[in-house]
Amino acid sequence: MSSTATPEKRRTALDALHRSLGATMTDFAGWDMPLRYGSERDEHLAVRTKAGLFDLSHMGEITVTGPQAAQLLNYALVGNIASVGLGRARYTMICRADGGILDDLIVYRLADHEAASSAYMVVANASNAQVVLDALVERAAGFDAVVRDDRDAYALLAVQGPESPGILKSLTDADLDGLKYYAGLPGTVAGVPALIARTGYTGEDGFELFVSPACAEQLWLALTEAGAQVGLIPCGLSCRDTLRLEAGMPLYGHELSTSLTPFDAGLGRVVKFEKDGDFVGRTALEAAAERAASQPPRVLVGLVAEGRRVPRAGYPVVAAGQVIGEVTSGAPSPTLGRPIAMAYVDAAHSAPGTTGVGVDIRGSHEPYEVVALPFYKREK
């Protein structure tokens, strides 16, 4: 008899600590990750009103260095990476030659160690990290640049929520007031060397801290202690999903996939045709841009329930007895107090305020209102 061994799940440097806190663990992209520590709703509301602490060490870090690092990334990705300033970050995508989205990414431009060389860190989603790495290595042919897999070199902790600047300020001398959104700077937090980035996936102000895995527990405990008096609590992936959904942020495998171009996803703004030189997918994306301008395909919209039943990914969206779209993400919204969803719907039904739209939940057509994304926007 032959048997197929189940691949062992990867564990972050904080795995034992999560278990000591009573976390419910789940398999996410081959990693054993904390889903929740207690109440998902309490964790969600803590991030909206106080602060939450996340372990995001499953994300995929890839370093690109060399004299032609910027040219390589301009060719490999759809954004203009050559225009990213030192210490800044940019949201972008990597696409196939046919324009389909392989992944959405954040690219950080790191401090240049040599005058003739540049250094960038590409952060990919955990489920696509190997795909992105392989694509970058393949696309690097002919460029004077080195692509390095740094997934094991970093642990990633995130502090998110309105109290996060104060918590972090108590642990670092870094200039957080001067740190803009989508920027990063090297610093020391609670004695731990870190890349401190003002980025996040919750719709709140916050920071992501890239550190050595050996220092992750020391930093987690210091952040926990510093945030205790202002309501910081550990948060799992479950509330991270409802937070990003309320903030209208796409999740790969739901709102983004290889069957969609950035223009199909309403994110054509990340594609920079004006940059120098060719890039992978340019021809297909130019055609997709023309299609989207003349005859938009389905449009990504928000849906808010009139009732209490929760829509899930894959459920049909209907109007006048016809299927007009499909739910990509759905959940109860702790902030709005009602179920919400993102869905791709036919353009004719995509205007905010459109009524007469329903979601087919196991044969019952539940009424929903079409709204503009995001569902939630923090006050600045």
Features:
380 residues, six-stranded antiparallel β-barrel, 8 helices
Describe what you observe in this structure:
A hairpin with an 8-residue loop joins strand 7 and strand 8. The protein has eight helices and 20 strands. The model has no long low-confidence stretch (mean pLDDT 96). With 380 residues, it is of the alpha+beta class. It has helices at 15-20, 40-49, 69-76, 129-139, 164-169, 216-227, 237-246, 282-294; strands at 10-11, 24-28, 31-36, 52-55, 60-66, 89-95, 101-109, 118-124, 146-149, 155-160, 184-189, 192-197, 206-211, 233-234, 299-305, 316-319, 322-333, 338-345, 357-361, 364-371. The protein is globular and about 60 Å long. The longest helix is centred in the last third of the chain and has 13 residues, at 282-294.
**Side-by-side strand order of the widest sheet:** 11-12-13-10-4-14
| Rg of Cα set | 21 Å
Low-confidence stretches: none
Count of helices?
8
Oligomeric nature of the chains: single chain
SSE run: EHEEHEEHEEEHEEHEEEHEHHEEEEEE
Number of strands: 20
**Biggest β-sheet: count, sense, barrel?**
6 strands, mixed
Write the layout of secondary structure elements.
Layout: E1 10-11, H1 15-20, E2 24-28, E3 31-36, H2 40-49, E4 52-55, E5 60-66, H3 69-76, E6 89-95, E7 101-109, E8 118-124, H4 129-139, E9 146-149, E10 155-160, H5 164-169, E11 184-189, E12 192-197, E13 206-211, H6 216-227, E14 233-234, H7 237-246, H8 282-294, E15 299-305, E16 316-319, E17 322-333, E18 338-345, E19 357-361, E20 364-371
Parallel strand pairs: 1-3, 4-14
Antiparallel strand pairs: 2-3, 4-10, 5-8, 5-9, 6-7, 7-8, 10-13, 11-12, 12-13, 15-18, 15-20, 16-17, 16-19, 17-18, 19-20
Helix pairs in contact: 2-7
